[in-house]
Hints:
Strand order of the largest sheet: 1-2-3-4-6-9
Structural class: alpha/beta
Low-confidence stretches: none
Oligomer: single chain
Number of strands: 9
Number of helices: 12
Mean pLDDT: 96
Bound molecules: coenzyme A
Radius of gyration: 18 Å
Order of helices and strands: EEHEHHEEHEEHHEHEHHHHH
CATH superfamily: 2-enoyl-CoA Hydratase, Chain A, domain 1
CATH class: Alpha Beta
Amino acid sequence: MTDDVQISTAGGIQTIRLNRATKKNALTAAMYTAIADAIEAGDANPDVGVHVILGSGGVFSSGNDINDFLATSKGASVPTPVLRFIRLLPRIEKPVVAGVDGPAVGIGTTLLFHCDLVYATPGAVFATPFLDLGLVPEAASSLLMPARMGYARAFEMLALGTPFPASRMVEAGLINAVVSASDLEAKAMEAAQALASKPPEALQAARRLMRGDPAEIIKRTDAEAVTFAERLMSPEAREAFQAFLEKRPADFAKLRQKG
Ligand code: COA
């Protein structure tokens, strides 16, 4: 159990709120578990028709907790809850609506490609700086981002690490609408209510057809996870994590000199 994720259900809508604003909603193993438990329980609960994912404190999520990345880079195994979560994303059965304000970094952006409706504020910023951390894309983003945004934009985000403001994500086809921060949650809930009033079996069947074969997506997730785990152990990644936590720029040149 963790207080860093808050779950509530009303009117056929399950709301999953990331609630660790002091750490910019960085996701810990306990948070991945809480979210995955909620999604599985909601999918199995006939009283839930739709999942809604929200951030808090003007932040969606700063991605995986870098302290956990650093621990893995020093020899700890990749936490099982992370793998469970990213393998669950393509298998979610009910529609997912997300409301994004502020930064959405790493998995904070890549999980959105598994959502069905995304609303964002003018202050939302989407970033996938995997390469700058010595890592590779995850959560099937190497497949879903080029497919959804086109290769050029996906490469710009995933390799160059360029953060995209909400306006570019609208052009890229990820976001349904940009709304003010004060209207964001009402907009997401309004869309969720509209979905919750649809015939549920037809909605799930339509969604399954539109999202494609989850096995194909999980195949990519698993392939990425192998390389990601190798990269986590690399001196490059360790330097990047340490630099972030020490609030200094990463120095990859010193690794070249040693090599
Ligand atoms: N993991 C662990 N701690 C994190 C974190 C993360 N992913 N993101 C933020 N934090 C912590 C900071 O270390 C800081 O902790 P402190 O108050 O104890 O020093 C606190 O959250 C506030 O973060 P800060 O960087 O000061 O906020 P900001 O408003 O200047 O910047 C972000 C916000 C999201 C742009 C910035 O925190 C960031 O880039 N985070 C890392 C994102 C990332 O690379 N994630 C992994 C992707 S694979």
